[in-house]
Write a structure and sequence with these properties.
Number of helices: 12
Helix content: 40-55%
Largest sheet: 9 strands, parallel
CATH topology of the domain at 3-149 and 227-264: TIM Barrel
Shape: globular
Strand order of the largest sheet: 5-4-3-2-1-9-8-7-6
Strand content: 5-15%
Structural class: alpha/beta
Distance between the termini: 24 Å
Length: 268
């Protein structure tokens, strides 16, 4: 059982739901990312999704695009990213997920990527621009090294397609709450919660919801239907808006405290 699967299983036993937090590696530097990861863990985050910057991030809204731009101002490669993973892994067993685009991995080499990532301690990958029909080569390599290939589904995805995606993937299903790009929103789509019940029934994996999840109330509503929530843009915004890294880490903890409470202090 992978770290990701084990985390969901352990949370389920306690009637808790997973908090998955996204930040961009290298924003504004890799040295800054490490203490930010530690702050997320101290706040009670269960799984950490570390983005790798790409110049043309089709699924990302302005907030994460800006984070990628800032990260790319300094030389950063996948080997640098893997060293960051190793640094975190030396101290913490938290599941770590890479979110990036296929060109980054293809350029590195699929076999080399899977081998190096596995050795570094990476647990999963999310690749928004790699459809299932074109993923066989990478899936073959990630399965060899025990890295979860986390599928994505959207409100436009049929239930039969969700079953197909989760048959092929592993770890959890990342369900996009709305069509379009990432970003903070004041409210959840009206049809989301009703749709989630169908998604959970169709999925062979735990279901976590992201894109626009921005506060504890969003997390509370989603947790009644799904297995976890993903918060990204709201965290990236707060880090970017802080006057110092120390302040940013404190702000992350303050923001996440009520979210963690909602997801972890649940009644069986």
């Amino acid at each position: 059982m992978s770290r990701i699967s084990r985390t969901f299983a352990n949370l389920s036993e306690k009637s808790q739901k997973a908090l998955i937090a996204y930040i961009m590696a290298g924003d504004p530097s890799l040295d800054a990312t490490y203490p930010a990861v530690k702050a997320l863990r101290s706040a009670g985050v269960d799984i950490i999704e570390l983005g790798f910057p790409f110049s043309d991030p089709l699924a990302d809204g302005p907030t994460i695009q800006a984070a990628a731009y800032r990260a790319l101002q300094n030389p950063i490669g996948l080997d640098d990213y893997f060293r960051l993973i190793q640094r975190v892994r030396a101290e913490d067993d938290v599941p770590l997920i890479l979110m990036t685009y296929y060109n980054v991995i293809y350029h590195y080499g699929l076999e080399a990527f899977a081998k190096t990532a596995g050795q570094a301690g990476l647990d999963g990958v999310i690749i928004p621009d790699l459809p299932l029909e074109e993923s066989a080569d990478l899936l073959e390599q990630t399965r060899k090294t025990g890295i979860d290939f986390i599928p994505l589904a959207a409100p436009t995805t049929s239930m039969s397609r969700i079953a197909q995606l989760t048959d092929a993937g592993s770890g959890f299903l990342y369900y996009v709450s709305r069509t379009g790009i990432t970003g903070t929103h004041n409210s959840l789509p009206k049809e989301l919660l009703e749709q989630l019940d169908l998604v959970v029934e169709a999925s062979h994996l735990p279901v976590s919801v992201g894109f626009g999840v921005s506060n504890a109330e969003h997390a509370r509503l989603i947790s009644q239907h799904a297995d976890g929530v993903v918060i990204g843009s709201a965290l990236v915004e707060r880090l970017a808006g802080a006057e110092s890294l120390e302040e940013g880490c404190q702000v992350l903890g303050q923001f996440l405290k009520p979210v963690v409470s909602v997801l972890h202090d649940r009644k069986p």
